[in-house]
Amino acid sequence: MKILVTAKRVTDPDAKIRVKPDGTGIETAGLEYKLNPFCENAVEAAVSLVEQNGGEVVAVTIGDDSATINLRTALAMGAERGIHVKASDTELDSDLTARILAKVYEDEKPDLFILGKQAVDGDSNQVGQLVAEYLGLPQACFASKMELNGDRLQVTREVDGGLETLDLSLPAVVTADLRLNEPRLPTLPNVLKAKRKPVDVKTPADMGVDTTLKVVTVAYEAPKERAGGIKVKTVEELVDKLRNEAKVI
Amino acid sequence: MDAFKDVDFLDLNELLTDEERMVRDSVRRFVSQKFRPHIEEYYRKGIFPAELIPEMGRMGFFGVNMQGYGCAGMSNLAYGLVSLELEAGDAGLRSVVSVQTSLAMYAILAFGSEEQKKRWLPELAAGTKVGCFGLTEPDFGSNPMGMRTKAAKTDAGYVLDGAKMWITNGTMADVAVVWAKLDGRVKGFLVERGTPGFKQIAMHHKLSFRASDTAELAFDGCEIPANAIMPESDGIKSPLSCLTQARFGVAWGALGSAMDCYNTARDYAIERKQFKDRPIASHQLVQAKLAHMLTGITTAQCLTLRVTQLKEEGRARPEHISMMKMYDTEMALDCARIARSILGANGITGEYPIMRHMCNLETTTTYEGTTDIHKLVLGKDITGVQAFY
Fold first, then answer.
1. Domain spans of chain A?
2. I need a surface site. Which of A46, A221, B65, B311 has the fewest CB within 10 A?
3. Catalytic annotation on B55?
4. Which of residues 158-217 of B touch A (CB under 8 A)?
């Protein structure tokens, strides 16, 4: 089977993010990018399905030159080839991302499309759902378990208070949650092999995708610094503060 | 336990290729998943988890900067990063890789016959076999030329007599690279586990490098076949060239220990409150300590990266490696001691990595050439006069 997976570039989840003084974005000097952890789950799921059933895993990323390393990481984990759609963050919103990915899907015609459930930097959690809608395909989001039964896919989702199991016809769109699997680490020989695997570079314009944005980011702000707590002397003072300052009673 | 985060004051990570970053991240995650959660226990019990060796082999950690025979064939910088990340876990973990790669495998690659290379290198690279390196003796450390271990020619091959001491990987090793005098000339031999007259004896009661296998190798009329000699080895220069390789990894590793100590001390200083509920990080003396540590780490990084570039171009001299090994390990020990002082009493507990790194670094500044000997190597280079005999 042929599986398409996303390899989204995210800012290093362990890095301290600073907003630019003018609020137009974040400081990127010295900042490293990593493969989105949910995409790692997607790649692991795809690679292990292909190891068991044969086929090919194709990884796709959208981003500027710095996204190459994330695509290579997916290739080092076992994807056969990569597609790099060149676009910078300011040129993208969730909708355009979904339309680009839908076009990649149409060009590649895979049996299954697995995405990370969301990117850990933007946290929009929209793309998988939009892709399924644009393609008119069955979708299962936040997969914590996947099992292939012939030409159908059983996906278990973690929902409030329990588990929900869906049975999907293929092709389908699945978004991966953290508990789906334990992503493998790229070994050094596979890092070298990944360097030689083919990557097809294109732009949204090459693909004939309309690049009009529906959502434009207006400003970025860092969260306000939390002020330290104070000790109140009397119950009356506490009640007064709860009523007049915190306005919770 | 939190994942290790490197210290990069000058954005030196920008000098890494994508492949080198991927290697660094893979090793970091390997250490944080498989090793860091258990290191305190290993250290307390004085054990190295030998079961990790095949996993490390599968990851490609052995022979990183070596070509062919199943080795990854990556850059010297990639090898350095592997050493740094492993030692941020523990110097014992890094030493397994240093010894297997730069001492055992390098010796076989540089001085072994084609038959010996084919027999041992792929399995050592895969971590399905373990190698060690026997040069130091009970009475000969800084002066290896004085060695008493002797090889004598017999009809069937050679017979070895003598003892080697402080041998990392010594009890686990399937093959030992052993240096002995044959008619007064130093030669290298490969001795297999189980050879009659060859004993691998664990050394106990160490207060440093506790999560590392250290052994004495004893040879008592140990008969080895004629094809056990490494044909290209000739004179004391042969083992010394292996040490130049290993010191490169030792120096890189020390950066990992130093960074782990610095990170721990900085986080602690920000959290720990004394005097009017203010963090100790607000005290000028604590800030001075942190500034000193960061400057030390950053200076060592610059030195280390430059020597690594030279090594990649084939231009690194043994004296360059001496300076780097001496400086990095002494800087790391300095950082560990200062970090310990910032943590006060908490610094001596196993709850924090500092005392463990500090004890390891007491070894690291002496093994693979003591700081004093490296100074004399540099002294000879500066003046043209040798001060050791």
1. 2-244
2. A221
3. no
4. none
